């Protein structure tokens, strides 16, 4: 299993609620979390098969931005 970490603009609980259906569909339930307390609003994904680009597309489909941590 690998871990993907991305900086997002998912700011609060209601933002997390908005992305949940899409991320659960693409990534899977309980395989991702967003640390809204972190200044980078870091999305952490645990996956066996997904790549970074697929996760970024899923976040964008939900109306948010995700990018590589710098």
Name of the CATH architecture:
2-Layer Sandwich
Roughly what is the average pLDDT, rounded to an integer?
Answer: 97
So how many helices?
A: 2
CATH class: Alpha Beta
The secondary-structure class comes to alpha+beta
Order of helices and strands: EHEEHE
Tally the beta strands. Answer: 4
- Unreliable runs, pLDDT <50, ≥5 residues? none
Organism: Flavisolibacter ginsengisoli DSM 18119
GO molecular function, one term: metal ion binding
Protein name: Copper chaperone CopZ
Helix and strand topology:
Layout: E1 2-8, H1 13-26, E2 32-35, E3 42-47, H2 52-61, E4 66-68
Antiparallel strand pairs: 1-3, 1-4, 2-3
Helix pairs in contact: 1-2
Structure description:
InterPro entries: HMA_dom (IPR006121), HMA_dom_sf (IPR036163). GO terms for molecular function: metal ion binding. There is one protein chain. This protein has helices spanning 13-26, 52-61, and strands at 2-8, 32-35, 42-47, 66-68. The chain has one domain: Alpha-Beta Plaits. Helix 1 packs across helix 2 (52-61). The chain has 2 helices and 4 strands. The protein has a 4-stranded antiparallel beta sheet, with helices on one face.
């Amino acid at each position: 299993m690998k871990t993907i970490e991305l900086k997002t603009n998912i700011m609060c609980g209601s933002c997390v609620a908005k992305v949940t259906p899409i991320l659960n569909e693409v990534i899977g339930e309980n395989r991702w979390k967003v640390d809204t307390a972190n200044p980078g609003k870091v999305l952490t994904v645990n996956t066996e098969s997904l790549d970074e680009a697929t996760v970024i597309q899923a976040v964008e489909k939900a109306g948010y931005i995700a990018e590589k941590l710098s």
